[in-house]
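User: Could you check the structure of this?
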Amino acid sequence: MSFPKFAFAADPRALDDLREAPTEIRDLALLSLQDLVHGEQRGQRLDDRHGQDLSDCRKLYVDAKVDWRIVYQERPTPAGSLHKREIFLVAMRPRAGFEAYNTAFHRLGRTRTTSSPRATAARARSPRTVPVHTSASPTPQRRTAPSATAAPTAPLAQKGPSR
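Assistant: Sure, the predicted structure tokens are below.
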């Protein structure tokens, strides 16, 4: 048997996830973790979705139906370790309802962010609206700025026979 490329560590609750999983899922997960530690497999990088930043984590599909996920981190090992990096198991949960990702997010002790680029863009004001002040109304009203192309002044001729 070859020497592992990575050290292994796990959140104690992730070990509970493994114990509580159905037998066939647990067996597949243990094989996947073995492949991770030996560097024979690597999961897909996660990102920041809906204010949950998991960009330092990776996901791995456990079963052929892709109903179960492993969420883990590749991180530096503590001083004095034989390895430079370790696989840290954060969660092993079902895919349904984003349970694996929500669990990992909470286990890492993170708080939801609202300043993701998508959220910022969604809250941004349209550049085409300008405030308009009228003498009758003390509060500014919004109107749309005129478009860059002028509307035609004459009606367009219809093509084809007219009735």
